[in-house]
């Protein structure tokens, strides 16, 4: 078979899209469209706020973040609220991870009751709204088992997220090649040793991205504990607003603080991930 | 055959099912201490299943399997001890990708045999020498060629001071130019007196080291004979046909 004769077309440019489509698809135009739409939204909300006579007082916001007094530099209420949120979230996340691992191992144990219990737990937690779960822990389980609102919030968040985390563990464990189990078994390792030295270290690679998502999710859902007045970022935001009536500015600020924290977390972990990838 | 020594693997009337599929049919076989047995046969004939039963990666449904005096079955309390005596080399190597070569070799002795780090490392380096890749000790498996990975896998089993080595198609996943480096290591291992059961289609290797050739088809052992008779004058027609097919080219 001989090659088709295409010599007449040699060096010819390929046909291009029509000029109008090329104009719309260009980077400059799409940025321009984006800027125009954003400007419209911002202009709309500002005029809307103006029309309802809202008195913007952005200059009063920084004092809630930091201040310079005679004693020197001091952190503001919002920052202390953020510390409380981080502490609450970190404790809840640590508990959720331990509980999630236990549920996942129970699910994978091959025991009939183990599988049933873990599936039951998963379905129960997944199908109750977080807010209702919080009320259950605070108003029902709290008085029964004698824990305060702070521990009620931590346990609510931990239990709620442990269900999701157990699924991440299960997927991560299942993603490790079956041959790894066989190799570990053939050198005489027990199931526990195989998990600890062979399977879990390899699952980390698969679990890191969804676990980061889950940590971000938990930090965000920790705002819900403000309904039982646990002192954290959202509660403090609400308190400041009831003192100052600056609801627009403070909610914008609180939202920005959440965003900064979760973005830092995501960026940090994606850096970790890249380092991990090199080792494999 | 080394008829003088004791049997170390005894298989009697072994049957194995996967659901309705009869994977092993009334298998009878004896392997003696120091014997090298090569098992061949078409794919799906049950040869991998058989040797996977030998260290409890699969369980037989009926019949008896006694290895090194230990009755092998799912409830056996001695399985972990037995697996330490019986090494297994897999077609896909199955090295631990998150550990370096040296760590791959040390983790069994340290965690299973409770050896100290120094002793485990000395053993690991000794066997890495024996498979001719001492210089790769600190690399990760993914940085090695397939042939090197398989040699590490062999060393990993040897580090457990195994008395029986099982090979499940150890060269089938390798590029052709790497097959010989693995076979050479296996020949050396055979010369050292190790008891070996090898599932392979490498007939050159089989001719060189085998004491006994086994041909399986459809879950049954069709032929057991010494290699000189096996290759020149097999008693069964099916075995002759199979050998014609794989030795033709």
Overall description:
The complex is a heterodimer of chains A (280) and B (249). By secondary structure, chain A is mainly alpha-helical. Chain A has ten helices and two strands. Chain A has a two-stranded antiparallel ribbon with strand order 1-2. In chain A, α3 runs antiparallel to α4. Chain A is flat. The two termini of chain A are 47 Å apart. Chain B is of the alpha/beta class and 249 residues long. Chain B is built from nine helices and ten strands. In chain B, the strands form two sheets. A six-stranded mixed beta sheet of chain B has the order 6-7-8-3-9-10, sandwiched between helices. The interface between A and B is medium-sized, with 19 and 28 residues.
Helix content estimate of chain A: over 70%
The biggest beta sheet of chain B reads: 6 strands, mixed
Overall mean confidence score, pLDDT of chain B: 89
Helix run count of chain A: 10
What is the spatial order of strands in the main beta sheet of chain A?
A: 1-2
H and E string of chain B: EEEHEEHEHHHEHEHEEHH
Distance between the termini of chain B: 29 Å
Q: Low-confidence parts of chain A lasting 5 or more residues at pLDDT below 50?
A: none
Helix content of chain B: 25-40%
State the oligomer: heterodimer
Straight-line distance between termini of chain A: 47 Å
Instruction: Please state the structural category of chain A.
Output: mainly alpha
The low-confidence runs of chain B, each spanning 5 or more residues with pLDDT under 50, are none
Helix and strand succession of chain A? Answer: HHEEHHHHHHHH
General shape of chain A: flat
Beta content of chain B comes to 25-35%
DSSP strand tally of chain B: 10
Instruction: Tally the beta strands of chain A.
Output: 2
**What radius of gyration of chain A results from the CA coordinates?**
27 Å
Broad shape of chain B:
globular
What portion of the residues of chain A fall into strands of 2 or more residues? under 5%
